[in-house]
Write a structure and sequence with these properties.
Strand order of the largest sheet: 1-2-3-4-5-6-7-8-9-10-11-12
CATH architecture: Beta Barrel
Pfam family, one: LOR
InterPro entries: LOR, LOR_sf, Tubby-like_C
Shape: globular
Strand content: over 45%
Number of domains: 1
Helix content: 10-25%
Mean pLDDT: 85
Distance between the termini: 30 Å
Organism: Streptomyces hydrogenans
Structural class: mainly beta
Largest sheet: 12 strands, antiparallel, barrel
CATH topology: Porin
Number of strands: 12
CATH class: Mainly Beta
Radius of gyration: 15 Å
Low-confidence stretches: none
Family: Belongs to the LOR family.
Protein name: LURP-one-related family protein
Length: about 160
Amino acid sequence: MKYLVRDKLFAIGDDYWIEDEDGRHAFLVDGKALRLRDTLELKAPDGRVVITLREKLLSLRGAMTVERDERPLATVRRKRLSLLRNHYRVTMADGTELDVSGRILDREFAVEYDGELLAHISRRWLRVRDTYAVDVVREDADAALLIAVAVCVIRMAERED
């Protein structure tokens, strides 16, 4: 399933919808302004908070946490000792790891688990300016988590740039 994210609205305090490939509202990204650290909430269309993204305050390399029901779900960090600047590691609460690599700032990258593609993020399929797609490849994958990972990685890469 593909989800469409409008890139130009990525700012703290801005709220915007992520739509599914049929144009229906799938998630609302609610940017929390006036917070000490960068915080976003990914909400279901009914207003229920599905995932919360928070910038870690005391992190040397920069990191964001992904929370579900106020419990840590994952931590997203730029990978240490990577020849590729655009390589991130997502460490899940259970210890499993996802790899994110590609051209992050160009919105052309992939999220993989143990070499298996979970999601592909791309502008290539779209003609709408400032929009990219998160194509969740596996049907049993957690779409909200993969969208949250894409949002985290892009925010972190933009700050590093």
